[in-house]
Amino acid sequence: MRIGILGTGVVGTTLGTGFVRSGHEVRLGSRTSGNEKAGQWAAEVGAGASTGTFAEAAEFGGVVVNATGGLVSIEALTAAGQQNLAGKPLLDVANPLDFSGGFPPRIVQDDGRSLAEAIQATFPEARVVKTLNTMTAAVMADPRSLPSDHSVFLAGDDVDAKQVATTLLGSLGWAPDEIVDVGGLASARGLELYLPLWLSLMGSLGSATFNIQVVRG
Amino acid sequence: MRIGILGTGVVGTTLGTGFVRSGHEVRLGSRTSGNEKAGQWAAEVGAGASTGTFAEAAEFGGVVVNATGGLVSIEALTAAGQQNLAGKPLLDVANPLDFSGGFPPRIVQDDGRSLAEAIQATFPEARVVKTLNTMTAAVMADPRSLPSDHSVFLAGDDVDAKQVATTLLGSLGWAPDEIVDVGGLASARGLELYLPLWLSLMGSLGSATFNIQVVRG
């Protein structure tokens, strides 16, 4: 599958590498063309990896991944272009963390609405799925690096887009029963508001290499 | 151990039963004496169970458990009396859920501060530990009712009070490595903000009988 990833940070590059190693073609998009981090990434990953602007990455992808910072995601997606997102599954893995008051950051949900819902409202023709935002990048891209089963969540209003997301997660190594559909896109609120607990856990465990598993009765 | 539980709802009575069956003495406190639900509970549980006002329950306990609704907890603890809380571990299991806008409820954290921190600020001589608020009452009181290991969190600034909480959790059947200390009381923010995800999971799983386990790398 062709995947356009917006964002050249740790999340974008780590997911990009994971997707290329799973047999997909990935174009990593940045604000301006000729981004140094993106170029280094493409050189390291080799065949299947390419770079471009946000718009070029989004146009390339049959699926688009928002891996930009949560506070600039709407701006980055606007640069990507409504027409390059229309009709496509848009996997939103970003978290709207505000570090302006120091650490720990606060989660920004204007009017109690999640970033994912704000993206969907701004780009109504995209098919937004919130996923993967509840863990560190290395675990997103290589779930089998943890010693036992754990969970990844999906929230979205478009059933077909969630099915595409499930397929992509499977190609990264996520088992079917590890993928937990938590409902419509409004459930992205809980996925984003989980971040403060994640940050506390990272602090107390002394590592970001962990995740949670849903244990059913 | 003598435990005073404030609140006669499902959480208070279920935890109360669990603690009595674990060999503790429990006094269940309510706003007014002669509360019918509390009386029924005490009659069912038998020896080790008693009832009283919030103040009588708090006075009775060497440990106090806040199992009142999160939006009325400060009022209930005020009725319990600063002098009956002073120096005691206060296990806050409440969630500040606001159902005034319908379902799903919103989590209320004034100025980004958790209910547990607000309680600590209002009752500075109590030794507040946030715990058990991240699951349904039946799982709190009987963790072995789930088929595999799962996690319960502790947040608090008083190390000795967290040790008392650990001992009490152990008496309910929580294994030492299931009890995860997430740090100081500010980490209660994440424990309370987890509730929207919990509510989404309850909806998608069709059951409240579940919990999460922390899986470490």
Describe this protein's structure.
2 copies of one chain form a homodimer. With 217 residues, chain A is of the alpha/beta class. Chain A is 39% helix and 22% strand. The first copy, chain A, contains 10 helices and 11 strands. The first copy, chain A, has an 8-stranded mixed sheet, with helices on both faces. A two-stranded antiparallel ribbon of chain A has the order 6-7. In chain A, helix 3 packs across helix 4.
CA-based gyration radius of chain A: 16 Å
Low-confidence residue ranges of chain A = none
What percentage of amino acids of chain A are in beta strands?
A: 15-25%
Q: Helical amount among residues of chain A, as a percent range?
A: 25-40%
Greatest interface and its participating residue counts: A-B, 45 and 45 residues
Number of strands of chain A: 11
The CA-CA distance between the termini of chain A, in Å, is 37 Å
> Helical stretch count of chain A?
10
In spatial order, strands of the major sheet of chain A run 3-2-1-4-5-8-9-10
Order of helices and strands of chain A: EHEHEHEHHEEEHEHEHEHHE
Quaternary structure classification: homodimer
Overall morphology of chain A: globular
Q: Main β-sheet of chain A: number of strands, strand sense, barrel status?
A: 8 strands, mixed
Helix and strand composition category of chain A = alpha/beta
Mean pLDDT of chain A: 96
